[in-house]
Design brief:
Blueprint: H1 3-6, H2 17-24, E1 32-33, H3 45-54, H4 67-77, E2 84-87, H5 90-101, E3 107-111, H6 116-124, E4 128-132, H7 141-147, E5 152-158, H8 170-179, E6 185-189, H9 204-210, E7 214-219, E8 232-235, H10 238-247, H11 255-265, H12 268-292, E9 296-297, E10 303-307, H13 314-324, E11 327-328, E12 330-331, E13 340-344, H14 348-362
Parallel strand pairs: 1-11, 3-4, 3-5, 5-6, 6-7
Antiparallel strand pairs: 2-8, 7-8, 9-10, 10-13, 12-13
The protein binds 4'-deoxy-4'-aminopyridoxal-5'-phosphate.
GO biological process, one term: L-histidine biosynthetic process
Protein name: Histidinol-phosphate aminotransferase
Keywords: Amino-acid biosynthesis, Aminotransferase, Histidine biosynthesis, Pyridoxal phosphate, Transferase
Length: about 375
């Protein structure tokens, strides 16, 4: 295989519950998983009903162009349907973007401590990664703008960012977009957008009208509770979506996922319940971390990055101590944060189990 493919370090997903149960001799029912920023309420009932109705059609291929889902998204975001690209999760969108806009030898800019798939998508096309040092664990957009060189064709920005939870206000992103050359596509990855408080929300999808090089990426995996179905989407002008459509797999979003996503998109109470739970869970975590004297990065997502020790073995050590107690969180050593752990916000009872386990692990 190509040297640039062999150089890739595989994505490290959260440990599955069944694997932890086997490895540590635990009962699956007693395991709490707060490792993958999933929705603690699971699949919305509305999506479950939509999928049940769609099962009868599974003998047929999915709608290759996702007509109904794109129509629903176009309505929601007030853009023409051909401005939407569907993905097998938003990871697919990120990869399609790299394939559509970057060739071997060109460059991609992203931030230190930003989402792991940016590196994978960059390496996967044999491009050069320009990794810009983070500022206070978040994106340094001034430095990122300055880092764009003649070879750069793509910039990835995560807002809020995973794994650090940092947030960039609208004005800063606009200032950045105004500086970026027209031949550089900016992927604004808003996987955690729906967890933002109303005062932090902005009409990013509408910005695609003003910025022909902007691609806004969203997912149904987080706030909408459909991580296992793999469905995400992008909003951008047709010049960009046309190229992405040439490179994506023809049936990249399956029929059940399309049906479930339409239902979830219209399920406002489910989103509201999730946002409320998230805010309460965040307060629960912060109170515990303050009590324990642990440093954490203020988070705008459904997870918190917390520093569990001063030595580079701390993250792995506390992670193991948590696993032994049946609590799965995410070590972030692969992000260059070996003293930290990332904890997804769960239901109040799950959060409490994690906090009690953390206290034991630190004692
Ligand atoms: N972007 C960010 C910032 C993420 O944290 C994630 C999930 N880990 C994704 C994209 C991809 O999620 P999905 O493929 O499930 O949409």
């Amino acid at each position: 295989g190509p040297e640039y493919v062999r150089a890739i370090a595989p994505y490290q997903a959260g440990k599955p519950i069944a694997e932890v149960a086997r490895e540590f001799g635990l009962d699956e029912a007693n395991i709490v998983k707060l490792a993958s920023n999933e929705n603690p309420f699971g699949v919305p009932a509305s999506s479950q009903q939509a999928m049940a109705a769609a099962v009868a059609d599974l003998g047929r291929y999915p709608d290759a162009n996702g007509f109904d889902l794109k129509a629903a998204l176009a309505k929601r975001y007030e853009v023409p349907a051909d401005w939407i690209t569907l993905g097998n999760g938003s990871n697919d969108i990120l990869e399609i973007a790299a394939h559509a806009f970057v060739q071997k030898g060109q460059a991609v800019v992203y931030s230190q401590y930003s989402f792991a798939v940016y590196a994978l998508a960059t390496q996967g096309v044999g491009a050069r990664a320009i990794v810009v040092p983070a500022r206070e664990y978040g994106h340094d957009l001034d430095a990122m703008a300055a880092a764009i060189d003649a070879d750069t064709r793509l910039v990835f920005i995560a807002n809020p960012n995973n794994p650090t939870g940092t947030f960039i206000p609208a004005a800063q992103i606009e200032a950045f977009l105004n500086k970026v050359p027209a031949n550089v596509v900016v992927v604004l990855d808003e996987a955690y957008n729906e967890f933002l408080a109303p005062e932090h929300q902005f009409e990013s999808a509408q910005w695609a009208r003003k910025y022909p090089n902007l691609l806004v990426s969203r997912t149904f995996s987080k706030a909408y509770g459909l991580a296992g179905l793999r469905v995400g989407f992008a909003v951008a002008q047709p010049a960009l979506t046309d190229l992405m459509n040439r490179i994506r797999q023809p049936f990249n979003v399956n029929s059940l996922a399309q049906a479930a996503a339409i239902a979830a998109l219209n399920d406002k109470p489910f989103l509201e319940q999730g946002a409320k739970n998230n805010a309460a869970g965040y307060a629960q975590f912060v109170e515990a971390f303050d009590e324990l004297g642990l440093q954490y990065v203020p988070s705008f997502g459904n997870f918190v990055l917390v520093k569990v020790g001063d030595d580079d073995g701390a993250g792995a050590r506390i992670n193991l101590a948590l696993l032994k107690q049946g609590v799965i969180v995410r070590p972030v050593g692969n992000y260059g944060l070996p003293q930290w752990l990332r904890i997804s916000i769960g239901l109040p009872a799950e959060n409490a189990i994690f906090i009690a386990a953390l206290k034991k692990a630190l004692a």
